[in-house]
Predict the 3D structure of the following.
Amino acid sequence: MTGVRGAALTGHRRPAVGLAAGDRRRTWPWRRAALAMTVVAAAGLPFVLPPYRLFQVTLVLVYAVALLGLDLVVGHSGQISLGHGAFFGVGAYVAAVMIGRLGLPYPVTLPAAALVTYGLGWAAGLPALRLRGLYLAVVTFSVAVVLPPLLKRFPEVTGGAMGMPVATPRGAGLDDDQWIYFLVLATAAVAVAGIRNLTRSRGGRALTAIRQHPAAAEVLGMQAASHLTRAFAWSAMYAGVAGALHTWTTGFVAPDTFTLSLSITLLAGAVIGGLATPAGPLLGALVVTAVPAAARELNPAAPGLVSGLLIVAVVYAAPTGLAGLLRRAAAAVAARLPAGRRA
Amino acid sequence: MFGQQLLEGLGAGAGYAALALALVLTYRFTGIVNFAQGELAMLATYVAWQLVVSGMPYWVALPVTVALAFAAGVLTERLVIRRLESGAGEVTLVVTTIGLYVLVNALATLVWTAALRAFPSPFPDSPPGLAALAAAGVAGAVLGALALVVRRTGLGLVMRAVAADARSARLSGVRVGRVLALGWGAAAAVGALSGVLLAPTLFLEPSMMTGVLVYAFAAATLGGFDSALGAVAGGLAVGVTETLAGTYLGFVGADLKIAVPLVIVVAVLLLRPQGLFGSAPVERA
Amino acid sequence: MRRVLLVLTLLLLTGCRADGGGAVLTGECAGQDGTGIDADHVKVGGIYPLSGPASAYAAVAQGASAYFAHLNRHGGVDGRRVEFLVRDDAYEPARAVEEARRLVLHERVFALFQTLGTPSTAAVREFAHRWKVPQVFVATGAAAWGAEAERRPWTIGFQPSYVAEARVYARYLAEELPHARVAVLYQNDDFGHELLDGFRRAIAGTSVRIVAERGYEVTDPGVQGQLANLAASKADVLLDVSTPKFAAQALAADAAMTGWNPLHILNGVAASPAVLQPVGYDKVQGVITAGFQKDPAAPEWADDPAVRTYLTALERYAPEADPGSQQVVFGWSAAEAFVKTLRRMRCPSREALRAAAHRLDDVRLGMLLPGITLSTGPGDAFPIEAEQLSRFEGERWVPFGRVIDTRAGPAGQ
């Protein structure tokens, strides 16, 4: 029995991809140009897209921040978290209560949400990760199930089951949705930079080692529990920040938005996007927001049919996620183009 | 009054226990948590309902359904899970089951609509207490049969070998693939039973098992996630706390009663990490 | 490459946006917003849970769509065809806001006709207020839509509020069972709490008492445990404030318990044939509920012209809908009310629609029970405020007693 558990949870069956596998080859030669294009496109987007589309793009960025965090747990640490929907919800409520009840200015809510969820993540990860195995899934599952009724319990603070409307940020000279988009974009950029630093640091390399071969990592003197707990706390913090951004974007919080199904959706998004790759979270967020919408267009009678088939099909066609697929496609394109300077 | 409530709790608990058992079976054999377990059970319950409605006697429809569910479980493993297993990790497999969950639910809604259906009870005119006891009895009998198979037969020996270490089993000439498919089949069959047990009181509809899955997950967790006996005991315990907590733990209240088993779980994790019935993990290089 | 950059930079600098403003009217309605309405069309959006846990309420959308189709067939509203766009929010408030954005900013609808469920409506209400879009005849019984009309005038309710419904039950009990001991099963959300609190306030001062109350979560598998708890109280009356699936479970559990036979009061949300039929009609005899709509299947309405129109139209435009469902009737009635409100607009503008919705005087609708009308005015933003009790006899609800007007209680909230 114990063998299965060991095999199941250390995750050694998963083939490492890209940087995580120590692959330093460049698949795409024009990195700087691509980056510049992305920056320009991101800055220009709010001026060409109609408000509704821009709102959707903003939501994608919000989920991308949450998935960046979740990827630390699922991708880099090889653990399963069912509680990121709850951390997302806590972040959203911290922001909503601070703006709606206490009347504080919105910029303050971001660090506050980050701080609270970091602490919560630490508290949840500490007992669970000391033990490892399925326990993190179990503890986070508990958090996800308990949060909605708990939020309903204190209607004076949280607005109860009915939820609470919140004033959305406004900026001078821009439409509201444009201003929020830029706020979210800036936060997402910082989040990406933060993850890059984290995963390339000593701690990030330790995580990879612990995931790949826990016993060997231990022998090399890495304290698995403390590394994993820290990573989990960071990850919860990312989800909390995304939650605060979600409140800014939608201007409304309700307990039933942050149920277990949100956690499950996020988990699916992380895997479909691609684990432990920089592009994974963004692609995953795109799938999480676009797939249900597309499914409703395609088959209004049973949107689940399309969503479910898509999830299974993507996992089937691209076990390393969409990012893996994209990487392969990019490599193929780069190899064919005559101008491609293979680095 | 206490007795009545206890009986109610045990009756509901038997259903949770059966689904928890199914979750644990899948987990033990394949090392993944199957989120679609409840939905597969719901699908099986619809099949049973369709059979009964078309005129088949209840006690014939039940074994037919369980057999069909077993076959469906084996097929799912062969057609979906097996294909992925070679290339993908557990997390990916877990997400596949999430996809299955969504897919099966939508499929059922498409075929049977979201309307509530009355599901026949095997003991239509008995008082609720008796029906609950009978349900608990059925769950116990299944567990007993399962335990007999696993402990006393050659097949059981092979199954235990695969569960203990798939790679070593394969090297010893065990056809691991077959045993894994068998594990999925057994889990689906037990799951179908949980659906049939719960449907008379919960009413049949596509999202019938969604809430049950959460409770079953709590039950499996309470039992350590790798012990069949633990899953059953956990299911009964969750059922009983659910009924009694509302009455005897005033500060908890009905809204937070689901928190009771979960708080127990976290407390247990701190004191006895392998769960109440689970076995302690041994780390090996 | 560089050219692309240049174009994008230019675009960024000029700050242009592929998006025009709304249609501002001129002439006698100068300055008002006429987006989504012209001489031939009026574009309207509705948001319903077509999928997800509350997808049973999709029936409301079917009823409304059928009415609009029927209307367009007969010439529309003053020559305008109603173009009704139905969107799915899966009963998630965040998604409802997203869909509202889509409808208002992308599809450019004239008004939002109905959002379903209190959380979704509350979420969309802020958006509607922000963009000054009417959100009329929302399908939820929260009292807030009427009580907060001063602050959020763009949103208005339709059905009697849950508080009004609670008053009807309280008044009935105070008259018929003055010393009733009541056990309450409630859904632990806005709907359950509002009806329960409304009931508690309405029985204050009478000798009716609540002796036990048990909540459940929408995510719970069942309510058998709660029912067993409530049975321990030996109350005379069970006030059942649950949604369809749980109501069926509660009715079945109540019928199975031979030792406890309370008067079962079933709230209006769950009093549909789709709930009672699976339980078995023989097990729900004598259950009481309050309603305000005609039962299309009842023999007393067999010759009623409005009911006949309804049945023929449904058969033609929504053959997949269950014509006996009160949800479908609800959608139909609300759509009819909406069209009557459109006819009362003084200008083809959003402002005029808002004004018309707040100035309804005894508007009759075909599918409302006789004696029940829509009226609003200054200080009263509750369109329907009267209900009649029905008892389940045989295979249907039989109305009894008089129409109870809840306005005659403490005014407003």
